[in-house]
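debug: dumping io for the single-chain case to check the tokenizer round-trip. Nothing else runs in this session.
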Amino acid sequence: MPAVAGSDAAPRSWAEWQARVAAAGDALTPRLRDAARYAIDHPNDVALNPVAQVSVQSGIAASAFIRLAQALGYPGYGAMQRVFVEPLQRAAPPSHRERFRHQGGEEAIADTRDTPALLRAFSQANRVSLEHLREQADTLPLAAAIRLLSGARTVYVLGLRRSYAVAAYLAYALARVGRPCVQITGVGGAILEQARAVQRGDVLLAISFPPYAADTLAVCEQVQAAGARRLAITDSVLSPVAREASVVLQVNDAELLGFRSLTSAMCLAQTLAMGLAFEHGRGRAKGRAAAPLEEIDC
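debug: decoded output
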């Protein structure tokens, strides 16, 4: 496969590598996207193992990892692997999937009728997810996200299916901290009609996780064409919701027995709401109108 656009110079850091993969988007074949997603989810595996071992662990052909390296501008897999070794040498924390796998997030449940055991298992899985989110705090573009929301004429919030609860909370919380905010719900099947209100100067806050809701993706495309900016809350830079977004906040929640929790996503939502509250509090101190912080109960 030829190098993707803009990849004449291979990424020199883990952050550059992720940005290049995100920008590549559909220029990568489905197999290369599978390889890239595995590398994002298991960076320490890629850093520590030869391509043959990574192939066995991932179930993806070694040739896919080699072609991915070449598509990103590297002469081969070994050169790309060095980008993954560098953060490991700085004692970077493991990825969410690695942490989940190695720290007991996938607790076995001998009897699914044992509801206390279910509670313990989900509590453990959520604890692992929150610990990972906490350790990734310095790498998330939270300040950029808050600036984007603060500067929007109106914030439109969209989250469907399991993401609906996060969207509903954010719509409530952003309104409480003084941001003009509208939740796009798609009631009556009119979601694209509702989204036509989003125009240049507005921000769409889109929340989606695998399997990504088709209506959410359709709204993202429509809003992009209208010239509005987008803040994406999703699981990966390879997520279709992240494509062409102004800011992407990656968050991974626990998945156990086929159910995904919302613990980390809600924690991130609370952080955004309170970050905006304090931003508005600073604006109030400078003479701009804003609700007193003591009146905010979100």
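debug: round-trip ok. The chain has three domains: 14-89, 97-138, 140-295.
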